[in-house]
Amino acid sequence: MITLYDFKTKLPGTTLSPFVWKIRLALNIKGLEHQTHWISFSKIEQQLKELGLPPSSTTPNNFGTYHTVPGIYDSFTDTKVSDSRAILKYLDETYPNTPQLLSQPNGDPQLEAFVAEAFAPAWGTPASMIRLLWKVIAPKIVLEGLEGEDTAKYRARVEAANGMSVEEWMENEAARGQCLAKAREAFDVADAWLQSTRKIHGGVWALGEAVTLADIELGTVLAFACSILGKDDRLWKQIIGEWNDSRWGALWDQMGQYTRVVM
Fold it and tell me: What is the pLDDT of residue 243?
């Protein structure tokens, strides 16, 4: 059994971290038996240390800690791994008979630049989509998704990013509108990327007939948005039903089946 460490929220999707979503999607795509072990957002570092998880990075993250989710414990191999990219590598290597998400398509020179971009250590396109969308919808996380110490810690990050209190941000329609417009531009860039790759290979996934890291990255953006907003939210319906001629809805039809949160 693989245990996935994550922090719980009161949001529609129960969880929200895009980094954890990458691993949850991967586990579901690979069909690996797993469960979620919930920890406290404000005590991530403390609790992961107590569980014996290695640090995620040698440099502190946005919260000044070295431990963060996701982390996994694989009881089949008695192995603990932290950091989403390291976990993906471990899952591919340990379970070779499952879809190999880090396997790069090759053989088509027209795809080389797209493959290199998608498999780079940090693909800027989905990161930009998440960062800009997060600024718009993060107040919901503070006001509805967390409580107690968890809320206070997350509020500090949101307010530092937006340069004003959550309440001021919610009243500032101009600032939120500008940020949402930039988020939509980021989605436009990703959509153009996807259309270009599919014209080349004609496959069902981003880079061909096999699901790869590129699909995980873009699927994570949608899973992140849906988990915070909920399926009945107006903005979510716009993203999948209106933006880029509903092509994000088509991608969600492919990826949504892999968003199951196993308690």
Answer: 98
Q: Give me the pLDDT at residue 62, please.
A: 75
Residue with the two structure tokens 């791994």: 81
Q: 162 and 72 in one domain?
A: no
The secondary structure of residue 241, as a DSSP letter, is H
- The pLDDT of residue 188 is 98
Whether 72 and 2 have beta carbons less than 8 Å apart is answered as: yes
Per-residue pLDDT of 113-172, as tens digits, reads 999 999 999 999 999 999 999 999 999 999 999 999 999 999 999 999 999 999 999 999
34-39 vs 2-7, strand pairing mode:
parallel
Q: Which helix (H) or strand (E) holds 6?
A: strand 2-7
Neighbouring residues of 7: CB distance < 8 A, sequence distance ≥ 6? 15, 17, 38, 39, 40, 41, 44, 69, 150
pLDDT at res. 65: 79
Peptide bond into 18 cis (omega under 30): no
Task: Please identify every stretch of the chain with a pLDDT value under 70, giving residue numbers as ranges.
Answer: none
d(CA 102, CA 24) in angstroms, rounded, equals 15
- The total number of structural domains that make up the chain: 2
Helix (H, G, I), strand (E, B) or coil at 66: coil
Q: Which CATH number fits the domain that encloses residue 69?
A: 3.40.30.10
The amino acid sitting at 155 is R
Q: What is the DSSP letter of 205?
A: B
Q: At which of 94, 127, 150 does a domain end?
A: 94
Burial of 24 (0-12, 13-18, 19+ CB in 10 A): buried
Would you give the DSSP letter of residue 56? S
Using an 8 Å Cβ cutoff, are 143 and 9 in contact?
no
Q: Helices 247-255 and 173-201 meet at what angle, rounded to 10?
A: 70
pTM: 0.96
